[in-house]
Design a protein that fits this description.
8-stranded parallel β-sheet; 9 helices
Length: 256
């Protein structure tokens, strides 16, 4: 066992070759199935997690529903949907375990950002979903006013860029969540960022493995999990590794 603390893996991808993939900027990822994920995380006390749709999966829901069925009720889905999606489809996805809507400003493959405010309110009012943004924090300043008016939001991969961290910290102070993921993607000191973000809002940070780390300059390492504990201490780490994400994803309306 890698560690005794439970982990709600707030961000990972399942890439199953049984389902169609869409080349993104010429890139197609290698397979990373549910079996692969279970093998890679067998040293952890996994108590649940969030399967996140990637740019290369577009608006496909079949792979996500299949993966959720395999992993069980402690896992949720983060999907991408076009703005014209009927309410009945959203309700059906909620029943299948989907709990959030993703806008991928970094890679594409999702609905346009111009639809973000409308869709954020729509899915929150209908099923209690939040939205998740894959965005460089340098681009957050222009969206600041818009983001703080939305019901619930999280930002992927610590915002990626050092120069955008001051804006990210301000958003965190106003209730925006941040995924402590993709440590191999960022250009700043992880320890300092974790301390600053946790200090700004102890309920904001949600750790995830980012497996299989598609296109990351440096893929996930087990040391990334331990960085959280070593930097924040065990009590704070419990919030970041499981409690914060569990509370955030479970806020969605229970229609079952």
């Amino acid at each position: 066992m890698l560690a005794t603390l439970p982990l709600f893996d707030s961000h990972f991808h399942i890439i199953d070759p049984r389902f169609a993939l869409i080349p993104n900027q010429g890139y197609l990822p290698d397979a990373f199935t549910v079996a692969d994920y279970r093998h890679q995380t067998h040293q952890y006390q996994i108590c649940g997690g969030a399967i996140v749709s990637g740019s290369f999966q577009g608006f496909d829901q079949d792979y996500l529903i299949d993966a959720l069925t395999q992993l069980g009720p402690n896992f949720v889905g983060v999907t991408q949907l076009p703005a014209h999606t009927p309410d009945a489809k959203i309700l059906s996805l909620h029943q299948a375990g989907v709990r959030a809507l993703r806008f991928n400003l970094k890679r594409g493959g999702s609905e346009d950002i111009s639809q973000m405010t409308h869709m954020a309110h729509r899915v929150y009012d209908l099923v209690g979903w939040h939205i998740e943004l894959y965005i460089d924090s340098n681009d957050l300043l222009s969206l600041h006013h818009q983001l703080v008016t939305l019901p619930a939001v999280s930002i992927d991969h610590l915002g990626l860029s050092k120069t955008g961290l001051p804006t990210l910290l301000k958003l965190v102070e106003q209730g925006i969540k941040v995924k402590a993921t993709g440590f191999g993607r960022v250009d700043f000191n992880i320890n300092n960022a974790l301390k600053d973000l946790y200090s700004a809002n102890p309920s904001a940070l949600m750790f995830g493995t980012d497996m299989p780390s598609t296109r990351a300059p440096r893929p996930y390492k087990n040391d990334d999990f331990l960085i959280v504990i070593d930097t924040l201490g065990e009590h704070a780490a419990q919030r970041v590794l499981s409690k914060n994400a569990q509370e955030f994803y479970q806020k969605s309306t229970q229609l079952e």
